[in-house]
Amino acid sequence: MDGLCDEQVQNEYEALLAIYGEDTVSRKLEGGRITQISVRIEVAGRGQCLLRADVSQNYPAKLPELEVYANFLNSNEQRVLLADLIAHIQNEVGFPVLFSCVTFVTERTTQHTASNQPEHEGFDTTVPQLAQEETDGVPKVLSSAAVLGDLLHGEIITDRKSVFQAHYAAVYSKEHVEEVVSTLLQNSKVANATHNMLAYRIRSAETQNALVADCDDDGEKAAGKHILHVLEMLGCENALVVVSRWYGGTPLGPVRFKHIANATRQVVLEAQGRPEKDVSSGKAGTVR
């Protein structure tokens, strides 16, 4: 594995760690290099599913060797799941695929659980794919922890001139989400961000107490699902998080997802009045 692949694997591992936490994501080191990454996926009401990826053979230039274990699936179901997973990433040679693998396995095992239960409240996590745009200018961001109406603006994270900032609001319906986003975009600094990715989870009288969730990449592929996963991990309901990114001119690779996840976690914990566990190795921006 060459130096570039080593760096890409390290960045992807850190991104997964930021999203799922150290209790879920682990790695195997050989000679100071990551050769294997494992993710333990909790499937509600069924148990755990272990996804293991061998990344020692020039990944991501080559696809990783994958293993899947789940005590609630029989051997044939596990073989089918693995075959489908390999087919899912077959055309992704040269790109980071581990988050996509985790998402695929999570969705498939959750579907399996639903098919074995009489009732299941599902939710839509469709991610609209929008055209990506990049801008060279990075404006000053909103004041840290400033509250504008129902909006809470989190601290900033900067990395190689790219700036990330999350915004939080309590929401109780899809219409409320639209109103909050519209209000947020009235701020010219936010409106001029390269991407405004978002996710929300709602369970209220407006939704008849059913869990409704959705996300939007705004051109940053898979970013919305990263935000949504953090909301799920923190048990958030009736919550909307928008993460703004002002592109600084240098591609960040998978590490950008680590910053998106940490910005989300920070603003949610601040909104909930909970202490933050910092897992970011990114450079924290000054309060402006």
- Overall strand count: 11
Can you tell me the CATH topology of the largest domain? Ribosomal Protein S5, domain 2
Taking the sheet with the most strands, its summary is: 7 strands, antiparallel
- Number of helices in the DSSP assignment: 7
Large-scale geometry: globular
Overall SS class? alpha+beta
Q: Ends: how far apart?
A: 42 Å
State which percent range the strand residues make up. Answer: 25-35%
Estimated helix fraction: 25-40%
Q: So, the CATH homologous superfamily of the largest domain?
A: Impact, N-terminal domain
Give the rounded overall mean pLDDT: 78
Order of helices and strands: HEEEEHHEEEHHEEHEHE
> How many distinct folded domains?
2
CATH architecture of the largest domain: 2-Layer Sandwich
Oligomer: single chain
What is the alpha-carbon Rg in Å?
19 Å
**Low-confidence segments, ≥5 residues, pLDDT <50?**
117-149, 276-288
Q: For the record, what CATH class of the largest domain applies? A: Alpha Beta
Describe the structure.
The chain has 288 residues and is of the alpha+beta class. The protein folds into two domains: 3-115, Ubiquitin Conjugating Enzyme; 147-284, 2-Layer Sandwich (Ribosomal Protein S5, domain 2), CATH 3.30.230.30. It is 33% helix and 26% strand. The chain has helices at 3-20, 75-88, 98-115, 174-184, 188-191, 223-233, 255-272, and strands spanning 25-30, 33-43, 47-54, 65-70, 147-148, 151-159, 162-170, 195-202, 212-216, 239-246, 283-284. Strands 5, 6, 7, 8, 9, 10 and 11 form a seven-stranded antiparallel β-sheet that branches. A hairpin with a 2-residue loop joins strand 1 (25-30) and strand 2 (33-43). Helix 6 (223-233) runs parallel beside helix 7. The N and C termini lie far apart (42 Å). Residues 117-149 and 276-288 have low confidence and may be disordered.
